[in-house]
Design a protein that fits this description.
By secondary structure, this protein is an alpha/beta fold. The protein has 2 domains: 12-143 and 288-363, Rossmann fold (3-Layer(aba) Sandwich); 145-272, 3-Layer(aba) Sandwich (Rossmann fold). It has helices spanning 3-24, 40-59, 79-91, 104-117, 145-158, 172-184, 206-213, 229-239, 255-261, 288-302, 308-327, 332-340, and strands at 27-33, 68-74, 97-99, 121-123, 138-140, 163-169, 191-198, 220-224, 246-248, 269-272, 345-346, 351-352, 368-373, 376-379. The strands form 4 sheets. It has a 5-stranded parallel β-sheet, with helices on both faces. It has a 4-stranded parallel β-sheet with strand order 7-6-8-9, sandwiched between helices. β3 (97-99), α4 and β4 form a beta-alpha-beta unit. It is globular, with a radius of gyration of 23 Å. It starts with a helix and ends with a strand.
């Protein structure tokens, strides 16, 4: 073999080696979650879920023959920190997609960076402002705050409750929820006769609840918040001897809420994903296999109960990897297009059908109305 032929052969071998190395390079899944701070009982199961399923997917051969690598940061429930970590994931870690943040505040601080960088971003937060107006690169898995208000008002209407006190958190999720609740109340014949707020780090909400208790004509109370605050409010509610029907939004859809609120949680109603009542779903429900499988795997791995928040992370990761398979790789524009084209994905949050005008893909039927009875979740008929 001549020198030139040797050089050609060597070049070809190097090129093939480079292609093989590229094919074998891990797919980087970036994540910014609130694993500590006021929103920790949302972020902690989200991280546990991502770790568990990245490990499981890798054990089964990865995605498109490549292993997944989870690159994650804890924003401590601080939206400012979330922004900094998002920059790091994009600029330094060179991730292929981002799944998270946990809260609306964190998500909204990250979203402009995703749009500028052309980074596919699947949020695990609740507020409708994340996807309305539609942002090209931003998607989300949980039901919206507007949907939560509508589901609650549907139930109140059935019970003949029309005069309601709203008690919302001054966080991004709580304030977006307040705005959406005010906007849809009239549609269901609901009058908000009291409208109070609390801070996410408040340790006593008795003064605001006393105002609500003394409001003439109030028939029910709707608390809109996430994390530890709603549990404190629920305990204060019972300590004040209040007996009106008490509702929460989906920001407390976790066994951790029942643990924190204790006996005061008895009788509380809220809309949530089917995940919390997996064993109570009929066999005909298309979600039953999915939510039972997730519940079994999570509880076996982490020796603790599931929450809808971990389910949101499961859905985010599965939507991401499914899109990569359909896109045939990790090209960001192709993955973005594939996420937007998702149809019929059965997840823990419901059946997802996305489009160019809907970057969540869930309708109101994806919500279940639950009531806490004897320290457990039950379905409201």
């Amino acid at each position: 073999m001549t020198f030139s032929l040797k050089k050609l052969a060597l070049g070809a071998a190097l090129a093939l080696g480079a292609v093989a190395a590229l094919a074998a390079a891990p797919i980087k899944i970036g994540s910014v979650l609130s694993v500590t701070g006021p929103a920790a009982f949302l972020g902690d199961p989200e991280l546990k879920t991502l770790k568990m399923y990245v490990e499981d997917i890798n054990h089964k051969g990865g995605v498109l023959g490549r292993q997944l690598e989870l690159v994650h940061y804890d924003d401590g429930s601080d939206a400012g920190k979330a922004n900094g970590f998002a920059k790091r994931l994009i600029d330094d870690d060179k991730v292929d997609i981002i799944v998270g943040g946990t809260t609306t505040g964190s998500t909204m601080s990250m979203a402009p960076l995703m749009e500028k960088a052309g980074m596919p971003f699947i949020s695990l937060a609740g507020a409708v402002v994340i996807i309305e107006p539609v942002k090209k690169w931003v998607f989300k898995t949980p039901h919206t705050d507007r949907m939560a208000a509508e589901k609650v008002f549907e139930d109140m209407k059935k019970r003949g409750l029309t005069k309601v006190a709203l008690f919302s958190e001054t966080s991004g999720f709580g304030q977006s929820g307040k705005t959406e609740t005010e906007a849809v109340a009239g549609k269901y014949g609901i009058t908000l006769v009291a409208n109070e707020t609390y801070g996410p780090k408040d340790t006593d909400m008795s003064p605001q609840l006393t105002k609500i208790r003394n409001t003439p004509g109030v028939q029910a109370v709707f608390i809109f918040g996430l994390g530890q605050g709603p549990a404190i409010a629920t305990k204060n509610y019972k300590q004040l001897g209040m007996t009106l029907p008490l509702y929460h939004a989906h920001g407390v859809a976790s066994n951790e809420f029942i643990k924190l609120a204790g006996a005061a949680a008895e009788g509380v109603r809220l809309p949530a994903a089917a995940l919390l009542v997996a064993d109570k779903l009929p066999d005909s429900d298309p979600q039953k296999r999915v939510v039972e499988g997730y519940t079994k795997a999570f509880e076996a791995k982490w020796k603790t109960g599931v929450s809808t928040f971990g389910g949101h992370a499961y859905d985010g990761l599965m939507l991401a990897t499914d899109a990569m398979k359909r896109a045939g790789g990790t090209d960001k524009a192709k993955v973005r297009d594939a996420i937007e084209a998702t149809k019929g994905y059965v997840g823990t949050g419901g059946v997802v059908n996305m489009s160019a005008t809907d970057h969540m893909g869930l309708d109101l039927s994806a919500f279940k109305m639950l009531e806490i009875k004897n320290g457990d979740w039950t379905l409201v008929n």
